[in-house]
Write a structure and sequence with these properties.
The chain has 533 residues and is α/β, with parallel strands linked by helices. Helix content is 35%, strand content 17%. The radius of gyration is 22 Å and the shape is globular.
């Protein structure tokens, strides 16, 4: 079945829905999301949105903190533009109905690692959930926005799919005409054509065995864009959040927000001794890459399964009020955080690289934009400053929407696009291969391409992932497309990009730490860029 829209949005997190709402009064928009509309990384964002709006704060201070965290790889013009938008973005969310936590008739501001001021605008410790639910509500009620849930974007439609001789002439720019979208309930692949497409599909945390990300974070947008011919950059910079709740019996990951340390939480070994003073003078408020490596070193040195985050010295009423979701979740498994230490471990959390975009969210592929975690803007550099992620998503979606308003109408009509080709496909009934390969991939990435890396481990990972990739390609070519197969195909692609990018960076910088090259080098003070062809 063929469907036509003005704009196609792939992903239903804040990046996709904020963008759609900004354009919906003028254009007909389709939002496709592979699960329920509210299931996204946005929903699980506890901390908040960084915005320099405090009396003792300024845009310049926020810019400097971001540049410091980025370890010399952030693009200052991009940093400046995005952070200058922060106050406007907060106001727009308030106008949309988001009710942020207040204190004395002003917005209450939290502090997180790497920030020199209190500037985290939040709703308790479940900011992302509130924003996501409001965005979904507004989108569902808008007559020009259709939301298709359980709809998996399999591939972007470009000239490569057109069955016309020389449909893409030499040097002709690649153009995006929409996407092939799998209806996961019906098992059918629809052709969705759109004048403009926005990738807002989130990150790739599920490529790692330990992650804070929900099951939907399988790197789909990066993999699709790379296959279509877009450049990706800085994929070696995977941020590992220092403090995921350690609970082996719980299959659903639960994050212990950065703000817990920002409000005075202290990291301890099981004997009660502290250790962050050994690694950085900012102790628990050091940037995430430093804290994650410190915990990783402690675990490897002691053999303990976790370290502990202690807030028992803080006022009990304050803890319950400031962290209601964390308090209730921990209490449900027998941990009263006002009395007990919280067991924590690092876990894959955020992808600082992604599909390369310009300052308005345009990718290399004409009529294809990207925003949110899937996009590489240059804001984060080698390490993301806490709570800059939601800010980046809001800002880039705003810039992209404004750019499309100026451009709309300049796009040529659609060429004849063929339906999805199922010829030569049969069901081998060997689907156990998918679950086996995926689990092996997750362990390879965690063991060999994790917080601390080496050339030997990276090369071992490359060899093993290449074998899995060959298996998956062969299986994909012969079997009907199902979501679990398409996700594994994307995860393998993203794993290869992370490994190749990590091997290319012969230094340690920010989130990429290689024991063979423990120091930063001016020689490698540049992006790691990969392109398929």
């Amino acid at each position: 079945m063929e469907k036509r829209y003005d704009i196609l949005v792939i992903g239903s997190g804040v990046a996709g829905l904020f963008f759609a709402l900004k354009l919906a009064d003028r254009f007909k928009i389709l939002v496709v999301t592979k699960g329920q509309a509210t299931v996204s990384n946005t929903y699980y964002a506890q901390g908040g949105i960084a915005a320099p709006i405090g009396e003792d704060d300024s845009v310049e201070l926020h810019i400097q903190d971001t540049l410091d965290a980025g370890r010399g790889l952030s693009k200052e013009p991009v940093v400046r533009r995005i952070i200058s938008y922060a106050a406007q973005g907060i106001k727009e969310l308030i106008d949309m109905g988001v009710q942020f936590t207040e204190a004395d008739s002003n917005l209450e501001l939290g502090k997180e690692g790497g920030h020199s001021r209190k500037r985290i605008v939040h709703v308790g410790d479940f900011t992302g959930k509130v924003i996501e639910e409001k965005m979904v509500e507004l989108a569902r009620n808008h007559p020009n926005i259709d939301i298709f849930e359980n709809s998996f974007a399999v591939d972007l439609i470009t000239q490569h799919h057109l069955r016309i001789p020389e449909s893409r002439k030499r040097k002709e720019p690649i153009r995006c005409f929409g996407a092939y979208v799998l209806d996961t309930k019906a098992g059918e692949i629809n052709t969705v054509l759109a004048q403009y497409t926005l990738l807002a599909s989130g990150g790739c945390g599920r490529v790692y065995f330990h992650t804070t990300n929900p099951p939907v974070a399988t790197g789909d947008g990066v993999a699709m864009a790379f296959r279509a011919g877009a450049r990706v950059a800085n994929m070696e910079f995977i941020q590992f959040h220092p403090t995921k709740l350690y609970n082996p019996s719980d299959p659903v990951p639960f994050l212990i927000s950065e703000t817990v340390r920002g409000e005075g939480g202290v990291l301890r070994r099981k004997d009660g001794s502290t250790f962050m003073e050994m690694y950085n003078p900012k102790r628990e408020l050091a940037p995430r890459d430093i804290v994650a490596r410190a915990i990783d070193h402690e675990l490897k040195s002691t053999g303990d399964p976790c370290v502990y985050l202690d807030v028992t010295h803080l006022d009990k009423d304050f803890v319950r009020k400031r962290f209601p979701a964390i308090y209730e979740h921990c209490l449900s498994i027998g941990i009263d955080i006002t009395k007990d230490w919280i067991p924590v471990v690092p876990a894959a959390h955020y992808m600082c690289g992604g599909v390369m975009v310009d300052e308005n969210g345009r990718t290399d592929i004409e009529n294809l934009y990207a925003s949110g975690e899937v996009a590489y803007t240059g804001l984060h550099g080698a390490n993301r400053l806490a709570s800059n992620s939601l800010l980046e998503a809001l800002a880039l979606s705003h810039f992209a929407a404004e750019d499309i308003k100026q451009r709309f109408g300049s796009v040529e009509g659609f060429p004849p696009v063929p339906s999805w080709d199922t010829s030569g496909v049969f069901d081998s009934h060997e689907w156990v291969v998918i679950s086996h390969d995926r689990l092996e991939l997750e362990h390879i990435m965690w063991d060999y391409v994790g917080i601390v890396r080496s050339d030997k481990r990276l090369n071992m990972a490359r060899e093993r992932v290449e074998k899995i990739s060959s298996e998956v390609r062969d299986f994909y070519a012969k079997n009907p497309v199902r979501q679990e197969l398409a996700e594994l195909r994307n995860l393998v692609s993203v794993a290869e990009l992370i490994i190749l990018s990590a091997l290319a960076r012969k230094e340690s910088r920010g989130l990429h730490y290689n024991v063979n090259y423990p120091y930063q080098s001016e020689k490698f003070k540049k992006e790691t860029i990969l392109k398929a062809f």
